[in-house]
């Protein structure tokens, strides 16, 4: 009677230990096979000796088959008769499939290949093809897998529990690639909730949120040459010009449909190559339910979003960029996650991935949850996510979002809304340890992959190695530079002499970190207006200042990042529900900005002085930073061998004729770039491509030249090589 009661509890979905009741078990001198299949009219055991029909215990679908020990074959099959006929191996006849080492590494937080072991894994077990489902839910009373293979019935396939590590598992024969699935979790209070797989590698398109079983990797990569070159390169001493992209709104089909990964491989890649960017950066490509979050509310940390295709499609896009000689960065979001009730929030009925205390576990500014960085399994989950993008999708780097929100316990909180660390401070020590651990593991597994921090505070050593006490990032966004420069360009030139320090102050700290200069998506949304609209003046002046801004950024110390649309001065604010304003390129002013950007990127790649010593004082020196009255700035960049490149910018609409400026050497200099050139839509004021430097000291230099500075224009000069 006790066994019958347990089987009845299984049928109702309450029994917690399904493997103790279902499948084959010894009874006396023989075996009994218990089967639960709601709706079945008959169950038949099939083996090499024939068939045995099971005895119905409950009309709803509980059966048992009794065999003597000599008759029992553990590879028996079941045939289910009823509305949906089925035949296959019994899932409850298999031994545990998660190995002891995998379970140990997971519990220790040291499993670097979570996505290759846990979640849904298609494999052969004992000569049978199927899918192993596993899940971490240590505080759940019961876990079952549901999907289109079992009619989404929560009673059919409860999982086996491993109490030492909190993992659940079941191997389902016959479940193949393409199957949709979720997990049904019974919480301690008896309530049930459907959850998607945290380790899912592919999901149905929103608003659906079921995971999709993915087979073993089969994509054949063609980027071997790129990967070989990457292993020999150092990102800090190479040119880095990043084109930041939101995949869904760069360009669309005429009817508004999103481009697929394949469409982007055929159109975006040649465009980026023609422009001359060295890298692209995708706003978070991981799966996310709300399109308007641009990917920053991530739910699928191991899965490229299905909006544009399947995982192989994403690989095709990355592969195409690599074969074109262009690197790929992805935005990665380990700072927070959304509260969707089918996602990570209170996953097993408890604060599993987040802190239970909302003063630690919730981000009030965004209405999201914060990861518990002090928990081994959570650290493991996040680190394994990053390693997955490197290993399976060949990404070259990560831009880590919202690092400041991770570092400070009082980030966007009022007094009383946060708790101090164990020393009474505001620093999130667990997050600091996590970031260092993440970089240590990444440098071991993929030393040629680099990271960029979106970090807006004065936290010291963000881009310093962990061995020297830093956080380990390769680069840090220079948010102060971006704010100061855009504020300056928004001023009427009449008042710029009073804010000259907006352009010069950044050099006081320019070499304290390894910086990326961002003109990012954050600056062209939320009613801030586009870069074009933030420039002061009429259309001609806006275009001139866009060109000057691009020249200023190109010559300034630091790597470069430009959000899509900025390369041609899109007039409207970015709209993720549309595409860029490509028709505006019919306007010569906008096409001129694009051509200007293209030529600057070409020059940037050619001149080592513009990038080789980006992060040390030896690569930069002022010519004149004090010409406040005329709003003119000039400096020298140099490479490791001392070869110079000179930038001079006139930030007013007045032509500066007869402007004497010191130069590093005498003799002829080429005017390599003039942002006021006619083919860019400018007024063609300049120096006819060449200036002659006299041996006349000026600005503390041994030589000088008299220049004509174009209105709202920037010049880049290089010494003319003797023929």
Q: Let me know the number of strands.
A: 36
Radius of gyration: 31 Å
SS field, number of helical segments: 15
- What summary fits the major beta sheet? 8 strands, parallel, barrel
Pick out the low-confidence regions. Answer: none
Binned strand content = 25-35%
Helical residue percent band: 10-25%
What order do the strands of the largest sheet run in, or round the barrel if closed? 17-18-21-24-25-26-27-28
Average of per-residue pLDDT values = 95
Q: Which term fits the overall shape? A: elongated
The helix/strand class is alpha+beta
N-C termini distance:
102 Å
Enzyme class: transferase
Protein name: 1,4-alpha-glucan branching protein GlgB
EC number: 2.4.1.18
Keywords: Glycosyltransferase, Transferase
SSE topology:
Blueprint: H1 2-12, E1 23-27, E2 30-36, E3 42-47, E4 50-53, E5 55-58, E6 62-68, E7 77-81, E8 86-89, H2 100-108, H3 114-117, E9 119-125, E10 128-136, E11 142-147, E12 160-162, E13 167-173, E14 180-186, E15 192-195, E16 211-212, H4 224-231, E17 241-245, H5 261-275, E18 279-282, E19 286-287, E20 300-304, H6 311-323, E21 327-332, H7 358-361, E22 362-363, E23 368-369, H8 376-393, E24 397-400, H9 403-407, H10 429-445, E25 450-453, E26 475-477, H11 479-489, H12 501-504, E27 515-519, H13 531-534, H14 539-555, E28 559-563, H15 588-606, E29 620-627, E30 632-638, E31 644-650, E32 656-663, E33 667-674, E34 690-693, E35 703-709, E36 713-719
Helix pairs in contact: 5-6, 8-10, 14-15
